[in-house]
Specification:
The protein is an alpha/beta fold and 812 residues long. Helix content is 49%, strand content 14%. It contains 34 helices and 23 strands. Helix 1 packs across helix 4 (86-95) and helix 23 packs across helix 32.
């Protein structure tokens, strides 16, 4: 779009007056932010309407990306950037004595996700819009995010993440497009004219109301849609009769029960009511999303048998896999297609991405719970299972294999198996991950459906994670190699010819130092901790889980601390270790790990004999907006998960794109980063894939052997329970038992010595400034291969079979 600075300033002042009857001098910062957001959405609305109209008029196939999470972060800055008016807005506001940076800080991070799954989904939406791919998101409009994390006396404390407290300026409520979702009840079956008819009775109806958010492509007039569903009551907000009798809690009980479906991301499922709520959430948005898609398609007048030509549903991990059975229900019960026709259409419409190797994340539902909550869906899943098992038996004549591959078995419904059987494509998210799926975790299915399986390595949007988050670096790149990389990120490879250029490297260093200095100032304000911007910024920010091995990082820090205590003159580059992570509320070991990190930080940061060389900081309430601040100033990227356990990772790509050097195991997409940059530009350590598999297969790993054979390790592990960390001896007893009594599931003790050596190598490399900057430049140059634009191009070509649509501006 085009708007000049004068027009923008006038439009902004009018918006303030229209919304709040205020001018620049009398308005609050919050009102200024809300007015600006409203104006930017208005600027995007013409493109939004044009995009929808052209998709419809040209009968273009459209992608619907179903995901439990869309971790979109803040939208103000990225929306202005993608509209191509960032400088105009920044300068125009400055002339009105308003800081765009300050207004961006007022926006709450959208509480729509937790980790890499949601961040990937957000990157994919951005890339689809920026490439002109007709692709939209479908999920849940959570009233509260996962939680807001507070650190109190070193412990994680969860408080509600009320991200909607100031409203959401970007969304549009579409009450006219609401649909009914049915839970519970009974299903009756009747036969008429040789056909079975199913009627759902005595169900609990829930109104699903969509809220649409524009997803703005980068300077290309395309505006796609993220549709999020909110659960509401149909006919009454509360029981007036109960209220009149003074039974006030009962009066609103039904309303709260319904609204709870879309209230909180990932409710605790350690109890049965939490499990029920999670299953309700999954069916709720899947049912609503598919009904909306079918209703929209039917308006075209095309036959339902051809819907696969115009609609593609992509299932992001197992959470939305109930979509396969729900789509079958719609086609058979509502559109009156036969089973065979419905199945043929469903399998062509559905595609599935697997995001995990961990068995615990391959979702299963107890049959009785599923059957009671979704009676008709259970009937369909059972029929899918019966027909599939028959196919398996006919091919192998092996009942044991049938049992292993059954969707319904041993009292549970395996949702990953349902997703595989009901989709035409099954992809992993990194080469190693896909290989493991084929050869181990899903080997039986790969043998049965060899043509379904494929790899699509994850990616990140360089618009947010470089252009927006690190504008000075983006400008340096453009001034060095031109701006073609912005539209073709693989052209970042042109930086390779400057990797040895001392002038370029010095500019690269200056940008990193300015980013670090800015971040240390923020740290000083928030935590009252002084951090040396000339120290190595060593960063591990990601979800807290045992396989990601924050423990390994902490153990190295303790080892370094003990070495400094014994030899204060130890020749090391000053190091600041940053952590950021949320532990799931019910994940006790992860929460204890956070306490351990903070305990170690308190010891080191208050020890004047070492704290000029060593600092540790746990960043509270890690989020997308915080990531945008820490990643551009990181020197070292910690990607130290146990090999074979991380599906891909995307944080590794973000750090790489911003010039950090990766210390990593050969796990997930680290393998592909290593292939690109070579041995000299990444620091690899730890067990290889075959070693891990061998240990797990033979069950011959003995953690206690590594504990006893390494005096450094023994001192650190014993410190968990002997009181030397200045806390009660019982404080970290569970971590101690996890490592020794429970045999160290993720091989922390095995990889410790190798990791310490790798960290020593980091120290040595950083001491050679010219070499370090060369490594940094090489990493940036190769990072374009990990842009989500490339990933989406591969999805579009090889799975969705769709091309871009050129959206033309409508002339007034």
């Amino acid at each position: 779009m085009f708007v000049d600075k004068k027009t923008f300033k006038n439009d902004f002042k009018k918006k303030l007056m229209t919304l709040y009857a205020e001018d620049i001098d009398t308005s609050s910062k919050l009102h200024q932010y809300l007015a600006l957001g409203s104006l930017i959405k208005e600027y995007a609305s013409q493109g939004w309407m044009n995009t929808n109209n052209q998709y419809s008029r040209q009968a273009r196939k459209q992608i619907y990306y179903f995901s439990m999470e869309f971790l979109i972060g803040r939208l103000l800055g990225s929306n202005i950037l993608n509209l191509g008016i960032y400088d105009i807005c920044k300068e125009g506001l400055y002339e009105l004595n308003i800081s765009l940076d300050e207004l961006e800080e007022l926006e709450n991070d959208a509480g729509l996700g937790n980790g890499g799954l949601g961040r990937l989904a957000a990157c994919f939406l951005d890339s689809m819009a920026s490439l002109g791919i007709p692709g939209h998101g479908c999920g849940i409009r959570y009233g509260y995010g996962l939680f807001e994390q507070k650190i109190v006396n070193g412990y994680q404390v969860e408080i509600p993440d009320n991200w909607l407290r100031d409203g959401n300026v970007w969304e549009v409520r579409r009450e006219d497009k609401a649909v009914i979702v049915k839970f519970g009840g009974e299903v009756t079956m009747n036969e008429k004219d040789g056909r079975l008819y199913f009627e759902h009775k005595n169900y609990e109806p829930v109104l699903a109301v969509p809220y649409d958010t524009p997803i703005i492509g980068y300077k290309n007039n395309t505006v796609n849609t993220m549709r999020l569903w909110s659960a509401e009551t149909i006919d009454k907000d509360f029981d007036l009769d109960s209220f009149s009798k003074g039974q006030y809690s009962k009066a609103v009980e039904h309303k709260y029960s319904i609204e709870s479906i879309s209230q909180v991301l990932y409710p605790d499922d350690t109890r049965i009511d939490g499990k029920i709520l999670r299953l309700k959430q999954q069916y709720f948005f899947v049912c609503a999303g598919l009904k909306s898609i079918v209703r929209s398609y039917k308006k075209t007048g095309r036959p339902m048998r051809e819907i696969y030509k115009y609609v593609q549903v992509h299932i992001n991990d197992t959470h939305p896999s109930v979509a396969i059975a729900e789509f079958m229900r719609i086609l058979m019960d509502e559109e009156l297609l036969s089973w065979d026709d419905a199945w043929s259409i469903t399998t062509r419409v559905m595609a599935y991405t697997n995001h995990t190797i961990l068995a615990e994340a391959l979702e299963k539902w107890p049959i009785e719970l599923f059957k009671k909550l979704l009676p008709r869906i259970f009937m369909i899943v059972s029929e899918i299972n019966e027909r599939f098992c028959k196919e398996v038996y006919e091919k192998y004549n092996d009942l044991e294999k049938v049992h292993k591959m059954a969707i319904v078995s041993d009292g549970f419904i395996n949702m990953a198996y349902l997703a595989i059987v009901g989709s035409h494509s099954v992809n992993g998210v990194a080469k190693l991950h896909t290989e493991i799926l084929k050869t181990r975790e899903l080997h039986n299915f790969f043998e049965f459906y060899p043509k379904k399986f494929n790899n699509k390595t994850n990616g990140i949007t360089h618009r947010r994670w470089l252009i927006k988050s690190n504008p000075n670096l983006a400008s340096l790149i453009t001034n060095t190699i031109g701006d073609k990389w912005i539209y073709s990120p693989e052209r970042l490879i042109d930086l390779l010819k400057f990797a040895k250029d001392e002038s370029f490297k010095e500019k690269l260093h200056d940008i990193k130092q300015k980013n670090k200095l800015k971040f240390t100032e923020m740290i000083q304000r928030k935590y009252n901790i002084s951090v040396d911007p000339n120290s190595i910024f060593d960063v591990q920010v990601k979800r807290l889980h045992a396989y990601k091995r924050q423990l390994l990082n902490v153990f190295n820090i303790l080892n370094l601390y003990y070495k400094l205590k014994e030899n204060p003159n130890l020749n090391i580059v000053p190091r600041t270790f940053f952590f950021g992570a949320k532990a799931a509320p019910g994940y006790y070991l992860a929460k204890r790990t956070i306490k351990l990190i903070n305990t170690v930080a308190d010891i080191i940061n208050n020890d004047s004999s070492v704290n000029e060389k060593l600092k540790v900081l746990f960043l509270e309430n890690y989020s997308v907006s915080l990531a945008e601040k820490i990643i551009p100033c990181a020197d070292v990227s910690e990607q130290i998960s146990t090999t074979t356990k991380e599906a891909s990772g995307t944080g590794n790509m973000k750090f790489m794109m911003n010039g950090a050097i990766t210390i990593a195991t050969l796990d997930g997409a680290n393998v592909e980063i290593h292939e690109k940059v070579g041995d000299d530009n990444i620091v690899i350590f730890g067990m290889k894939k075959d070693e891990v598999i061998e240990y797990e297969k033979n069950k011959n790993y003995r953690a206690v052997d590594f504990y006893n054979s390494d005096a450094r390790l023994k001192r650190i592990v014993d410190g968990l329970i002997n009181g030397s960390l200045g806390v009660p001896k019982s404080e970290f007893e569970d971590i101690y038992k996890y490592l020794l009594a429970n045999n160290d599931e993720f091989f922390v003790l095995k990889d410790f010595s190798d990791y310490v050596e790798a960290q020593d190598k980091i120290n040595s490399l950083y001491s050679d400034k010219s070499k370090w900057l060369e490594m940094s430049a090489i990493n940036i140059a190769h990072s374009g291969d990990f842009s989500s634009d490339n990933t989406i191009k591969n999805y579009a070509k090889e799975i969705w079979h769709i091309g871009p649509v050129n959206i033309r501006l409508k002339k007034n």
